[in-house]
Specification:
Elements: E1 40-45, E2 49-52, E3 61-66, E4 77-84, E5 87-90, E6 96-97, E7 100-104, E8 110-117, E9 121-129, E10 136-143, E11 148-153, E12 166-171, E13 177-179, E14 184-188, E15 197-204, E16 213-218, E17 222-225, E18 231-237, E19 243-249
Parallel strand pairs: 2-10, 11-14, 13-19
Antiparallel strand pairs: 1-3, 3-8, 4-7, 4-9, 5-6, 5-8, 9-10, 11-12, 14-17, 15-16, 15-18, 18-19
């Protein structure tokens, strides 16, 4: 899983209200100071992340609020809300807010929040900077926790005419049995040279099943296989040879 490149977005700004609040890494504002004037707000980090169900996103969601000269603004209130999907905002190490949270920008104009998704699939979070008419949207994707984790790769080298891939159970049932709808994670062995690659395909599947194809995989990459039909599945590394047989039962 990887974090896609940041794609900044902007929105027009109006007058921001003055707020006196301090949080873990945000600055406080002076109640006697005039309200700051915002020009733009941009996504500064955390967009297009992926995680497993039950785990927090790898990095915080971050918005930067700028003045008319492009400088970061301190003390701006930012409201965060789940737009789709489900998750808990982590305002402190021990406190979780069900579907919304508030943070304040620091001296660099950065406002951040941590999020732990509570449902699988694609979700979105919207962020509103106080006084700015438009919101910014963060997209995330959450995968189910795998019931079975497999690692595969060559015993000696990845030259196509050399070793076929072997498959090893990292966690889960040694009998290689799962139920329909459960997740099997398959990881191509980490630490191999960049020239090494693999591709998994289902070469045998139950009647009516959709074929599985991982696409090209580099060393250390993982792919999820979620069987939709009960029966016997045979998955092969078509780049090097080597197979694993999975028994899938009805839930």
């Amino acid at each position: 899983m990887s974090i896609a490149p940041l794609r900044p977005r902007t929105c027009a700004g109006l007058v921001l209200s003055c707020v006196l609040v301090a949080t873990c890494d945000n600055g406080a504002t002076d109640p006697e100071s005039p309200a700051p004037i915002a020009s733009t707000a941009v996504i500064a980090g955390g967009d297009f992340q992926e995680t497993r169900l039950g785990l927090a996103l790898p990095v915080p969601l971050a918005m930067r609020v700028l003045d008319t000269k492009g400088r970061g603004m301190q003390g701006v209130r930012v409201d965060w809300r789940m737009e789709s999907g489900a998750g808990h905002f982590l305002t402190t190490a021990s406190e979780a807010q069900p579907s919304s949270a508030v943070s304040f920008s620091d001296r660099d104009g950065l406002a951040r929040v941590r999020l732990r998704p509570t449902a699988t699939g694609t979700g979105t979070v919207v962020a509103f900077a106080s006084g700015i008419a438009s919101s910014l949207t963060f997209t995330l994707r959450t995968f189910a926790v795998p019931v079975l984790r497999l690692r595969f790769g060559p015993m000696w080298d990845c030259v196509p005419s050399g070793d076929p891939s072997g498959f090893w159970v990292v966690a889960g049932p040694l009998g290689l049995s799962v139920a329909v709808g459960e997740t099997v994670e398959l990881q191509y062995g980490p630490g191999m040279p960049a020239v090494c690659s693999a591709r998994l395909r289902s070469v045998s599947a139950p009647a009516g099943a959709s074929p599985f194809d991982s696409g090209p995989m580099a060393s250390g990459e993982s792919v999820d296989f979620v069987p939709g039909v009960a029966g016997e599945w045979v998955i092969e590394d078509v780049a090097h040879g080597g197979q694993v047989k999975l028994t899938v039962s009805r839930p």
